[in-house]
Amino acid sequence: MRGEGWSGPEDWGVWAEGRRSTAGWLAPARQDYILRIGAFPLCVPGQRQWIGIRVNGKEIGSYQWRECELWEAEIPIPAPEVRIGWNEISFEYAYAISPAEVTRGQNLDPRILSVGFTRLEVGK
Fold first, then answer.
1. Could you tell me the CATH number of the domain that includes residue 58?
2. What is the pLDDT of residues 107-120, one digit of tens each?
3. DSSP letter string, 76-110
4. Tally of structural domains, the chain
5. Residues 104, 119: Cα–Cα separation, whole Å
6. What are the distances in angstroms from CA 24 to CA 53, 83, 88, 97, 112?
7. Chain segment 78-92, per-residue pLDDT in tens
8. From CA 26, how far away is CA 66, in angstroms rounded?
9. Does residue 34 fall inside a structural domain?
10. What is the pLDDT of residue 69?
11. What is the CA radius of gyration of the chain?
């Protein structure tokens, strides 16, 4: 379930808005899980986007894009970091900017975007 810091769903997935977003899931047991991610940055010439990922406040991973490629990953969530019940995943980004600003008005989208997610799920 998405929390704060998200735009509305689109045909391909969803954009993260701003420099932080959250999501969460209900865990029926304290066991190992896997966070499956497909994500790409809003590309800004001369900048490299970065993502930091935490579960319940504990860092579980990070990634820095070289360019605008799709990053696909399976990130382990160790059982000691899992709570029975609600668990929060937080994402932090190096930058967030509007497509209108990046393209100097060629793209009129005013949203302050950081990373597009094509996949975001927690499983075993």
1. 2.60.120.260
2. 889 999 999 999 99
3. EE-GGG--SEEEEEEEEES--B-HHHHTTTSS---
4. 1
5. 29
6. 12, 11, 4, 25, 22
7. 999 999 999 999 999
8. 33
9. yes
10. 96
11. 15
In a domain, residue 68? The reply is yes
Q: What pLDDT score was predicted for residue 19?
A: 98
Q: Distance (Å, rounded) from C-alpha 41 to C-alpha 18?
A: 12
Which pLDDT band holds residue 106 (cuts at 50, 70, 90)?
confident
**Using CA atoms, how far apart are residues 76 and 111, in angstroms rounded to an integer?**
31
| Non-local CB neighbours of 76 within 8 Å, separated by 6+ positions | 32, 33, 34, 35, 60
Please report whether residue 50 resides in a domain. yes
Is residue 117 in a domain? yes
pLDDT, residue 105, reads 80
Residue 16, phi-psi category: left (phi > 0), alpha (psi -120 to 50), beta (remainder) = beta
DSSP 49: -
Nearest residue to 44 (alpha-carbon basis) of 120, 118, 4, 104: 104
**Domain residue limits at 109:** 14-123
d(CA 95, CA 44): 9
Q: State both tokens at 27.
A: 């865990």
Q: What's this model's pTM, rounded to 2 decimal places?
A: 0.93
